[in-house]
Write a structure and sequence with these properties.
The protein has 139 residues and is mainly alpha-helical. It has one domain. 79% of the residues lie in helices and 0% in strands. It contains five helices and no strands. The N and C termini lie far apart (52 Å).
Length: 139
């Protein structure tokens, strides 16, 4: 392969990653990772960089997908005989979470209840580590 051909392939690969893979990975991960606690989302953003993961965008994406898709479909699956009642119940659950997460009840952008439970061990160990580090003066 010539030098020109390898350079073209290399640049094409960068473009595919930039214009195709990055938006697809965001669309696949934001609804899930946006449910995690604010602390966990912030650390993910620091590790992978803001151009690859934006904590605020993930939060909003998960909020919308939970409200519009996840809770109504979950509830209609749990009530297969009456999917209308299940969907209504799911919308009520979603509205409750939406009100808490988007309201002024918390500072910042809290995760969903399920996301908070999942990220709780991480948050706890991180807080213990930070307290130990600050108490020994190794900040």
């Amino acid at each position: 392969m010539t030098n020109l051909a390898s350079r073209i392939l290399k640049e094409t690969g960068k473009d595919i990653g930039r214009y195709l893979l990055r938006p697809l990975s965001k669309a696949a991960t934001y609804p899930v990772l946006g449910n995690l606690s604010e602390q966990a989302r912030g650390d993910i953003e620091k590790i992978v960089g803001n151009e690859n993961f934006n904590s605020g965008h993930a939060y909003l994406t998960s909020l919308i997908t939970n409200f519009a898709v996840i809770y109504p479909s979950m509830a209609s699956i749990t009530a297969p005989d009456n999917p209308e009642i299940g969907a209504y119940y799911g919308l009520l659950m979603a509205f409750g979470e939406f009100t808490v997460r988007a309201g002024d009840a918390f500072e910042g952008n809290p995760g969903s209840l399920v996301g908070k439970i999942i990220s709780l061990p991480y948050d706890y160990s991180r807080n213990v580590y930070n307290r130990a580090k600050s108490s020994t003066g190794h900040e």
